[in-house]
Design brief:
Elements (H helix, E strand, L loop, with lengths): L9 E10 L3 E2 L12 E2 L8 E4 L2 E3 L5 E5 L18 E4 L4 E7 L2 E6 L8 E7 L12 E8 L4 E12 L2 E13 L5 H5 L2 E5 L2 E3 L1 E5 L5 E10 L5 E8 L8 E8 L7 E7 L5 E6 L13 E3 L5 E6 L2 E6 L5 E7 L15 E7 L5 E4 L13 E7 L3 E9 L4 H7 L12 E10 L12 E6 L11 E8 L30 H6 L1
Parallel strand pairs: 5-11
Antiparallel strand pairs: 1-32, 2-3, 4-6, 6-9, 7-10, 8-9, 10-11, 12-13, 13-17, 14-15, 14-18, 16-17, 18-19, 20-21, 21-24, 22-25, 23-24, 25-26, 27-28, 28-31, 29-30, 29-32
């Protein structure tokens, strides 16, 4: 790889604007744009924040006001006056969290994918000018969806191969009720229904399953998984077939590449491998030289000493033995693809302009990065018109005249539950935990990365494939601090 100066931040992938009182715009997972709702700017004097945008089905609906509206005796108790109304209707209770913040708590989870129109009767708790008696806005619930992956087929006991289990995961876009998710999948083998055990993640979005008591017979068979999304409000169904090899058929079942920081190949066999055997000379990866090998039950992990790219031939010798000391029938040569993705970070959709919400959740995607830098630049409310003299919403011209950075922080991506950083992965940041938004201000959010954030180190030879190097005017340079504070 050609050498470049990495003293500057590289690959500023996108910028996101967050308008705390203004216009809501988003693109949901169906690709459709919800209607644009323009809030009357006159409400900025009275309403400081409110739940809007795209929320999860378990969210409450909050409104924060610019001034105290109730006395301390009302805090913590349900309101006796009906202040909220929704279309479609939502049953629930409104409670004052403090003297200027009210929260509506739905009795049940909101409907996935539904867009709600909300109205709050301001005139019932304070005198309001004509035309501002009712504060109206909208929000949408995340559309539900799911993905099913079979991760392994292996025996309960390494030396007893007649009974195996099928392991897999179901990932959902939003919270899914445990009882309902368990009804989405049924399993059968040769007409016999099989029992499925479940373990559910704490957030209700990741669910692991194990199909129990699968028989491995003298003839090959299939376990069929029928998936019915209607149980979790998804109008989609599908079927997966999992091959169960016959007894005595020791063979390779699947091959995949894990592109994480420790790039390796995972080969799954039909039987557990003999743990004490020497595998020296039994695995050859084209042009990779020496490789490290690790056995985990029926999986063989192959770690190249140098990170690989492109298509490579992988030869597995028939000398590899299973736990019963049986060998493979033949040598096997496979084509393995090591995908080369340049380090990058990007926002989803075309950016968002969000009102203050119950959690300003900003989704983004990254590949081959262990961390990203986030910078938030605040354009002061009194300078918004001056900002628009030379900019559109996503503009960045002459920002020093109208704003200043309010946050610069490095966010680690390694502890966010992602197994393979070498692929495009989705992450989220809750901006409300990083900044204290002010009504009327504009917040411009930038994501960037540096060379030491790469999930792997590029070789110093060969053609350059690194991301574009960008001079970043916002980095602290000589005199930068005094420039902002002057």
């Amino acid at each position: 790889m050609q050498k470049h100066s990495w003293t500057k931040v590289v690959a500023v992938a996108a910028a996101l604007l967050v308008v705390i009182v203004g216009i809501f715009y988003a693109i949901n997972s169906t690709g459709k744009k919800p209607p644009v709702l323009t809030m009357n700017p006159a409400f900025a004097e009275y309403v400081g924040s409110y739940t809007s945008g795209v929320i999860n089905s378990g969210s409450t609906i909050k409104i924060g006001f610019a001034q105290d509206l109730v006395d301390s005796t009302s805090v913590g108790a349900p309101t006796s006056v009906k202040l909220f109304s929704f279309s479609p209707s939502v049953r629930g209770t409104a409670v004052w969290l403090d003297r200027r913040t009210i929260e509506f708590r739905p009795d049940e989870r909101l409907t996935s994918g539904q867009r709600y129109e909300a109205s709050f009767e301001l005139s019932k708790i304070r005198d309001m000018p004509k035309g501002l008696e009712t504060f109206e806005y909208s929000f949408q619930v995340i559309p539900q969806n799911f993905d099913v992956i079979v991760t392994n087929v292996k025996p309960y006991v390494s030396t007893e191969l007649t009974k195996v289990k099928v392991e897999g995961t179901v990932a959902t876009a939003d919270y899914a009720d445990h009882e309902q998710i368990e009804k989405t999948i049924t399993a059968e083998q040769d007409g016999k229904e099989l029992k499925i055990q479940w373990v559910h993640g704490g957030d209700g979005r990741e669910h692991t399953f194990t199909v129990e008591e699968v028989a491995r017979k003298n003839e090959a068979s299939l376990v069929r998984l029928a998936i019915d999304g209607k149980r979790i409000q998804v109008d989609r169904s599908s079927e997966l077939s999992v091959a169960i090899p016959r007894l005595g058929d020791f063979k390779i079942m699947s091959v995949r590449v894990d592109q994480g920081s420790s790039q390796h190949i995972v080969i799954q066999f039909s039987d557990p491998l003999g743990a004490r055997q020497s595998l020296d000379g039994l695995v050859d990866l084209q042009e990779a030289g020496t490789v490290d090998l690790e056995v985990r039950d029926n999986e063989l992990n192959i770690y190249p000493s140098v990170r690989q790219t492109g298509d490579k031939s992988l030869t597995i010798s028939r000398g590899i033995r299973n736990v019963l000391d049986r060998t493979l029938a033949n040598d096997t040569t496979l084509q393995v693809q090591f995908e080369k993705l340049d380090p990058a970070v990007r926002f989803l959709g075309k950016g968002s302009i969000l009102p203050a919400t119950d959690g300003l959740v900003m989704p983004f995607e990254a590949v081959n990065l262990k961390a990203v830098d986030i910078r938030v630049i605040k354009i002061f409310e009194k300078n918004v018109l001056q900002f628009f003299q030379v900019n559109n919403y996503d503009g960045a011209a002459e920002l020093r005249r109208v704003g200043r950075p309010v946050l610069q922080k490095t966010i680690s991506l390694e502890n966010m539950g992602v197994a393979d950083l070498g692929r495009w992965n989705r992450f989220t940041l809750d901006l409300s935990k990083l900044i204290t938004p002010e009504p009327g201000a504009i917040y411009q959010v930038h994501l960037a990365f540096k060379r030491n954030y790469l999930a792997y180190v590029c070789a110093d030879s060969g053609p350059s494939t690194e991301a574009e190097v960008i001079q970043d005017d916002w980095d602290d340079q000589e005199g930068e601090g005094s420039s902002w504070d002057s």
